[in-house]
Write a structure and sequence with these properties.
two-stranded antiparallel ribbon, 37 helices, disordered N terminus, SDA1_C, Sda1
């Protein structure tokens, strides 16, 4: 056939010898010399047109296509697609004929021919002979033809071509044309076209190629499509439960075999840190420290994996909704009227709750709708309760959520309920109160707190978490023994509609203290330098014996004042420095034992044996009080000047970019230290009043998705042998292969040891003779000793 071999006559016409060339060899020669093979190109292109005409006649007569003709047409199309860039004028109409054949007779073609024609068209698009916007609709239709391999090929081509187009810079005009084509297909009633358009949009949005508001709104609007498959795919992508697979035509639910295997969690324990630094020899400590470094690297890899996995809770297209209130109301009305199965209704419920919580909407009819399904025996009740928690925020009136809150308490938390249900109920109460604390009353809280004495670990843990929350929110609701040491004993939740307005830059106070809040020490810049004060005044203030109250009592009488002192206290106080005195003078009133002039009196008491009193005139005492007052005023002035100098750069009203970066670094350090303290890896040296539990802000609670697993029983289950082995291997990733110590010594390349060298050392002749003589003497001694046997002492001698 002419498709495979070129006849000798055609070569003789062009002046060449009578040799037979195949299409691949002719293709390479045409690429090297395009002008010399124009005659062959004309011949092959006429052959392609005749094969195409014959194929269309056969398909018009509804006769099954000849396989020889189909193979010939496929080979010729691939050949012409490869040489088209070298003959753009002569093959200008070839891409159009190829696209027309696929669009008109695509479904009647055999799979092999259809695949060859599609590959030829993809090659032309990649060589930029045909534009992406001209063939996008055709490639989207090819994905609906039922051929799985063709669907994968067309899908990957569409995604990769759009990614390549936006790789260096984004052409908004082209992108809008392509988006309008896909948006139109998404709104069509045809289920297959809408599903494939949604899959392409989701993949491009997930890859952040089209990460704009238009694409996100189009994906969210697909939740209103009449087809249930399109609805499920859009809901699953919006929720972020799973990626929309490019070859999946199911309802959006993936099997358990397709789920990725979870990575083992590497844990850093405080005992390991202690052993690596305190126990064992230096060699064993070195090994333990190397092991800790491997564990830390594994933990960092896990953090990078968790931060890189954006599909699980951190982002959702719902953030780009233009009319979030209208979207939630429309989807909720469809939920009330739809007759879909329970799983689809649950997904719609989660999307509505996520939208309400994310945009802080007010949808008052949503909470009574949830209230009907809040029962312990309800299917997927934890997902239902998580959706209810997600829909609660501080902008919702408490009266609208109070019936749902009471329903949870009455149905889950009572003595006849199972421990699992009680634990779930307490966890739901805690999460709702974290978002809307006004729902809790004092009597109800004290009743719920009593469950901390339960013998079930899950119930007691949930009750204690509720106590920890209200120690920060409202300690007055708890009884005295449950309050602990709250940071603010008078704290109360905000009233409905109350807003806290920031008057300064958050975290600006960290710049004043620098790194000191992280180390737990006070800011040294705010402490006055006591050495700058007059030492004589401090000594005089040390000699002041009575407080101002005693002075005021004796002022009217004008009499002498007797002051008794104890010699033991004076001797102890002699060693006090100025800083100790200043702390004592600030916190407690001065006592009689602080007198500096009583040393002599103490000595006299020891000598005589009788206590004596020191008599002073009141005028002298009043002068000393004036001196003390002056020293305290000087101390305050110094402290104020120091604080003013330290904060002069920050309070000027302008913060530079370096200051904001510094604030971010200090906040990160503070959070890291707090996390290490909670894990027990660091001693809590910050402040005795600082709380280890920090209530997140309402914005962070609204942005973060509520995980239903947090509401269930939180008991650490025993790991299986495979999980333990995976955990052990995770810490050995950077370790080399185990080898015995003898094998390591045998492969040593540093030479022999001294003992080995002594064995192989050549001795002189005299040393050899002396060694041989010594060995002979030792052998003779051994023989003499072995021949004589001790038979005991003879009795007759």
């Amino acid at each position: 056939m002419a498709a495979q071999l070129i006849s000798p006559e055609s070569h003789s016409a062009s002046g060449r010898g009578s040799e037979k060339l195949s299409l691949p060899s002719l293709q390479s020669k045409m690429k090297c010399d395009p002008e010399g093979y124009e005659t062959e190109l004309k011949l092959l292109y006429r052959h392609f047109e005749s094969s195409l005409h014959l194929f269309r006649q056969q398909s018009a007569l509804s006769v099954s296509a000849d396989p020889v003709v189909s193979k010939d047409l496929g080979d010729m199309s691939m050949f012409l697609a490869h040489v088209t860039p070298f003959y753009p004028d002569r093959l200008a109409d070839f891409p159009g004929k190829l696209a027309d054949l696929l669009s008109e007779n695509g479904r009647s073609l055999i799979p092999s021919l259809r695949s060859h024609l599609t590959q030829a068209l993809i090659l032309l698009v990649n060589r930029q002979i045909v534009g992406v916007e001209e063939t996008l609709r055709l490639f989207m239709e090819l994905q609906t033809m039922g051929d799985r391999n063709l669907r994968k090929l067309a899908f990957s081509h569409v995604v990769q071509s759009i990614r390549r187009m936006n790789q260096k810079h984004k052409d908004e005009a082209k992108n809008r044309k392509l988006q309008s084509i896909l948006f139109t297909m998404l709104q069509e009633e045809d289920e297959l076209k809408a599903k494939r358009a949604l899959v392409v949009l989701c993949d491009l949005h997930r890859r952040k190629v089209w990460f704009d508001d238009r694409t996100a709104n189009a994906i969210c609007t697909a939740c209103f499509h009449s087809s249930s498959k399109v609805l499920v795919s859009a809901l699953s992508f919006v929720l972020g439960y799973e990626e929309v697979q490019e070859g999946d035509d199911s309802d959006g639910s993936s099997s358990e075999d397709d789920m990725p295997t979870p990575h083992p969690i590497v844990v850093l324990r405080r005992e390991d840190v202690y052993k690596a630094n305190q126990k064992g020899t230096s060699a064993s400590k070195k090994k333990k420290k190397a092991k800790l470094q491997r564990i830390v690297r594994s933990m960092k890899r896990q953090q990078r994996r968790a931060s890189g996995n954006c599909g699980l809770g951190s982002y959702t297209p719902l953030t780009h909704l233009k009319d979030a209130q209208g979207y939630a109301e429309k989807l909720f009305s469809r939920l009330q009227k739809c007759n879909e199965r329970f799983e689809i209704k649950m997904m719609m419920l989660k999307v509505i709750a996520r939208t309400v919580g994310l945009h802080r909407l007010i949808l008052l009819n949503f909470y009574p709708f949830l209230q009907r399904y809040v029962q312990p025996h309800q299917r997927d009740v934890t997902n239902l309760l998580a959706a209810g928690v997600q829909a609660c925020h501080d902008m919702v009136p408490p009266d609208a959520v109070e019936p749902l809150f009471k329903q949870v308490v009455n149905q889950f938390v009572h003595d006849r309920s199972r421990p699992e249900a009680i634990a779930v109920g307490l966890n739901v109460v805690r999460e709702i109160c974290m978002r809307m604390p006004l729902l809790m009353s004092e009597d109800l809280l004290q009743d719920l707190v009593l469950y901390k004495k339960s013998h079930e670990k899950a119930v007691s843990t949930a009750a204690r978490s509720l106590v920890t929350l209200f120690r920060e929110l409202c300690p007055s609701f708890l009884i005295k023994k449950d309050r602990g040491r709250p940071t603010d004993p008078k704290a109360k939740p905000k009233e409905f509609g109350e807003v806290t307005i920031a008057s300064n830059v958050p975290g600006a106070e960290l710049l004043e203290n620098g790194d000191e809040p992280l180390s737990g020490d006070e800011d040294e810049s705010n402490i006055p330098d006591i050495d700058e004060l007059d030492e004589e005044k401090i000594e005089e203030s040390d000699s002041e014996g009575d407080g101002e109250e005693m002075a005021s009592e004796e002022e009217d009488n004008g009499e002498e004042v007797e002051i008794a002192s104890d010699s033991g206290d004076d001797n102890d106080d002699d060693g006090k420095d100025e800083s100790d005195y200043m702390s004592d003078s600030d916190d407690s009133p001065p006592t009689d034992s602080d007198d500096g002039d009583d040393d002599k009196d103490g000595d006299e008491e020891t000598q005589v044996g009788k206590p004596k009193g020191l008599k002073r005139k009141f005028s002298d005492y009043e002068a000393q009080l004036d001196v003390v007052d002056q020293s305290l005023r000087t101390l305050k002035r110094l402290a104020c000047s120091k604080m003013a100098r330290a904060s002069s750069d920050i309070n000027d009203g302008i913060l530079s970019n370096e200051d904001f970066h510094r604030i971010k670094e200090l906040k990160d350090k503070q959070q890291a230290r707090l996390a290490l303290t909670r894990q027990g890896l660091l001693k809590d040296s910050t402040d005795s009043n600082s709380s280890s539990f920090k209530i997140p802000s309402s914005e962070s609670l609204s942005t973060k998705r509520m995980d239903p697993a947090k509401l269930e029983i939180n008991i650490k289950r025993r790991m299986s042998k495979e999980e333990r082995l995976a955990l052990v291997k995770a810490g050995r990733e950077d370790r080399g292969k185990y080898r015995a110590r003898t094998a390591v010594k045998q492969k040593k390349t540093g030479g022999l040891s001294n003992r080995q060298k002594e064995h192989k050392k050549a001795m002189p002749l005299a040393a050899k003779k002396a060694k041989a003589a010594r060995s002979r003497q030792e052998k003779k001694k051994l023989q003499r000793r072995s021949s004589k046997q001790f038979r005991g002492k003879k009795a007759w001698k």
